[in-house]
Amino acid sequence: MQPPLSDAATPQDTPQPRSPRDLFVSFTWLALQGFGGVLAIVQREMVEKKKWLTPEQFLEDWAVAQVMPGPNVINLALMIGDRYFGLRGAMAAVAGMLTIPLVVILALAVLYAHYAGNPQVAAALRGMGAVSGGLIAATGIKLLPQLRKHPLGFPVCLAFTALVFAAIAVFKVPLGWVLLVVGGVACVWTWKRIAP
Hints:
Shape: globular
Structural class: mainly alpha
Distance between the termini: 23 Å
């Protein structure tokens, strides 16, 4: 399923990948940078550097990728690859996300099994968790201005953001329920607002 491109940009006036090979290389590079969290890296590479997506398209596609089953960055790679080159593009993008990173992960797993008892290794991994949280928070803040263009309006979007944060971080509500209830309300409300 190809999410529609927003009205802000059409495929003719935005840069595009040159070939499925370009998708493979780009998503391989993206995946190799994605230690601990890829949201910030995906946004920087796809929107700011390559400009394959506008900020609005990225938010729309990321929202769809989040609610689909499976890893969200793989879902996004599938959508972007399919958008430009159909099934070949989707397969190239996913192969780029998985092939070389899989080799790296297997090598790191062997190293970790050997050095897991080392206190310095454990401390380094805990430190990377903090960095990952910072990357995700920074990307969220960077994407916040795009909510001003949302049909529900900026204050309502901020209220939904705060509600989701409180439900997950404070009240420990499972993500599935938050997506179903809060996401469902937001989707229905938005649909009613934009329906003719």
